[in-house]
User: What shape does this take?
Amino acid sequence: MKKAITITIILLIVLGFGYYLLKISPSTQTGTQDVSSYNSSLDISGAKPLSAVPAFDPAVDHYLGNAKAKNALIENADFQCPSCAAASPELKQVPDKFPDTVFVFRYFPLVQIHANSLESAVAVEAAGAQGKYWEMHDILFQKQSDWEGLSDPLDTFAQYAQSVGVSDINQFKADVTAKKNLGLIQTDNDQALGLKLPGTPSYFFNGHVLENADLNGLLQQAQQWVNK
Assistant: This one.
């Protein structure tokens, strides 16, 4: 009888200790990241299927190079995507390395796996509203490893914005908090989902899919679809 009581007491102690550890341990899951509630602002359910890549529109798209170029290399990217960050410096060279070609950047925030993907895109738009779009685009890719794991990256984004010359930081923070220009990101996201893009980065040249590669590889693939 005493032996049974002793065993019961030991089991209760073990179970109680295990429950305590569970309560104080952070919630983690191998291979995934806790996804920010900020991401829920993006609708990923209503995209309509698309049969072709929407054409480059200089009035709407973010781009580098001549808006009247005969060729367009389009990238769909996520600021929290490591491969996108690695490719970014080369892609910005497209207008110089490939004659008569404009480089177009479109959003595809992978909100289901990247906690800060949407907020980073909104931050770039907020900087763009003050004339520093590409500067913010560049620094977020360059410093991706510093902010990707933050539970609230707003203050860090504000520091980056100030460093690249955004003049009104209070307005910047207000625009990010209010998710200003979310509609532009939503449109790009709907297009990406409508095209059933497999992930980021995804590339198109004059409407044709390019396989992921370094810049020279992309340009070699593009040769067959060049408009002269």
